[in-house]
Amino acid sequence: MKRESTQVLYGAASKRRKRPQLQLSNLPMNILCSVISKLPTRDAIRTSTLSSQWRYVWCDHTDHLTFDGSTFICRSVKFFPPYYATAKKEEFNARVDAILQQHSGEGVQRMQVKYALDNKSADHLDRWVSFAIASKTKELTLFLSDRRIKSFIMYNEGSSLFTRPKDLYSFPCHFFDARNSSYLRCLQLASVYLKPPADFSGIRNLTRLSLVDVDVEDGDLEGFLSHCSKALEFLEIAYCGTLTAIRATRLLNKLKHLRVGVCDLLEKVEMNCCCLTTLEYMGPMVSLAFGETSSLKDVCVKFMDVDAALDYINMGFPSTLSNVEMLYMHCIDRQRVTLPIRPLKFVHLRHLRLELVISECKDRKIDVLDYAHLLEVAPFMERLELHMWIDCPHQPYNRRTDGEVRSNLPSHRHDHLKWVYITGFFGYKDQVELVLQILRSSAVLKRMIISSRVIILHECAGEMIDVYRNRHAVDGRMIAVDLCKEHADIVEVLGAV
Fold this sequence. Notes:
Elements lengths: L5 E4 L2 E4 L13 H9 L3 H6 L10 H5 L2 E5 L20 H14 L7 E5 L7 H13 L4 E5 L25 E2 L15 E5 L1 E2 L14 E5 L5 H9 L7 E5 L6 E8 L4 E5 L6 E6 L4 E6 L3 E4 L7 E9 L2 H8 L9 E8 L17 E9 L14 H4 L5 E9 L7 H4 L16 E5 L5 H13 L5 E5 L12 H20 L7 E4 L3
Parallel strand pairs: 3-4, 4-5, 5-7, 6-8, 7-9, 9-10, 10-12, 11-13, 12-14, 13-15, 14-16, 16-17, 17-18, 18-19, 19-20, 20-21, 21-22
Antiparallel strand pairs: 1-2
């Protein structure tokens, strides 16, 4: 017999009791299944090797299936981290097929395939889409590029190069009909070919649609949207190089969020919608037309070609967007425009963020003081952000050489502006004049921050950004400190010391 372990405590022998070890397999089945359902696909599959009891547990209780390069590790590579050892296409396809054959197909809420596949894998991809439909999946993602593309609004300055399959997989729209597609709520497609057939009945209950690097013609996109118009709330279209127009003639009466970006051939966006609240656009300057936008409050536009921001605000901005409350605009300015006598008023605008890239290697024509016009355009604005990147010969303001600042300009009294943030302040004369004009015009201003730091970068910046940080920023800070001595209670100067 084994001796029970004892220990002496204050002269008396006491038995040491062994605590029973808690085994994961001892958990009630409902709790165990809940734990497995929360695991990543790769880890959930690995539980099948623990024991015969665990072999098929994951098959019935994994509601999120994600297959990507890290899901399967190539067996021939043993000494490298997982992200260096992704499976080959043939092995990837075979393993996904094997897993889906074992899975019961019940309760799959989300299914994602993120791997560089083309039309050569069409048979496999068709089976996976059929599995998603049969399992009543609510979210389906096919991301068939060889690298993950960020959502365009997070992408900075258009570095959108990536390798795409030459022979794109043709997404099987004909698999979906009114009967079997009622459960799908979210569809995300990347690097596929999309051409719905003539008898395509649509995905009636789709609320989110994302098309990234999708090869689709204008008419086919319009037809696809018209058959998904019932419940669509979010639409993203980005890096679709074949599109010249994004058009929705049928009313999208529930569309709230629209993202369009980096479609190089795009010329116009025409949407028939009545509940749109957020618009995000990035790419060349195009025509924006909306049927009814009384609900549109937030607009973010990043123009990647050369034009004038003030000209677009005064003339190009759709008059139907006059109810906008928050406007975020990025523009490259190279030409000065004639300001209108009676500009379009944005009476609902409360927050304006304007990013200006002024790039002129020789004589600069842009007059920064012109942007004081924004105070007249938005009479009820409360927050103003003006972020500048000026690539011009550096000439910080000097009273002896540049003369007195312009002080006899008409001042439009602004009774609502409370907060101003200016960056890229290098101390140019027209920058100094703009600051003084804002201070003189704003009746209730509580805080102005002036920074010589550059927080926006143009793709041509290169090594010049170090020059700005080392020299321009110092000059800008010194001039700003001297300029705002009389307004020290309101103005805070940031930047190089």
